[in-house]
Amino acid sequence: xxxxxxxxxxxxxxxxxxxxxxxxxxxxxxxxxxxxxxxxxxxxxxxxxxxxxxxxxxxxxxxxxxxxxxxxxxxxxxxxxxxxxxxxxxxxxxxxxxxxxxxxxxxxxxxxxxxxxxxxxxxxxxxxxxxxxxxxxxxxxxxxxxxxxxxxxxxxxxxxxxxxxxxxxxxxxxxxxxxxxxxxxxxxxxxxxxxxxxxxxxxxxxxxxxxxxxxxxxxxxxxxxxxxxxxxxxxxxxxxxxxxxxxxxxxxxxxxxxxxxxxxxxxxxxxxxxxxxxxxxxxxxxxx
Length: 288
Hints:
The protein has helices at residues 13-36, 41-67, 81-105, 109-132, 144-165, 171-194, 212-219, 221-235, 238-241, 274-282, and strands at residues 5-6, 71-72, 78-79, 134-135, 138-142, 196-200, 210-211. The chain is mainly alpha-helical. The chain is elongated, with a radius of gyration of 29 Å. The N and C termini lie far apart (121 Å). Residues 241-266 have low confidence and may be disordered.
């Protein structure tokens, strides 16, 4: 028997709030990644770590806010606590690996492709591991083609976001990139949910685990508090807020001058002395 799946039991409230959380985490993470490219190597790791946790926390919070609107009509839905925590850890580790690759190698070529792929796979792994933590009177079944489409969306979105972070542009550039990133992450989530179907068991016993309200609401306090802390760090960093399009990285390569040398072309006139000026003024046509 197939269960009746509803991913919008609260209407548009959960999708909109989830989208805003994905945008917030993406904006903070991208700004921290951009900032890491403008500082010396000793500070770069700290900014990249802050950006990694911000992006992962935003995506994880987005996922479980959206899951609070997920119901199966014929059975209650509970969640396993260790698996749910593990999904957050997987997101932080894999997103961090991708961001560190781009942060140290640059947002071009192989580094961008590798970092974007790892980050996108981390987002998809977080989603499906979180889904594996659901406990209900039934089995979860997925459509392979739709699952593959959701993974592709995650990889493309992550690659585009890391490319935008590597452009070292102003604040509005990162805001626009975060809006696109939030839309792509939300699209990945709901594409993955569209691949889900529930095959119910014949029993009516209560599944193990905790309910969404009892588990997810307290668990989101930590990521939300971290996002607020990251927002404070970004707000009080003048280079993050007052960014200019002509930023340049602080890393100087040997042999490359800071400013191009401009050569003077043509013969430069020599300055005249006071005696020469008085002598030339005293010469008149009558004296010649």
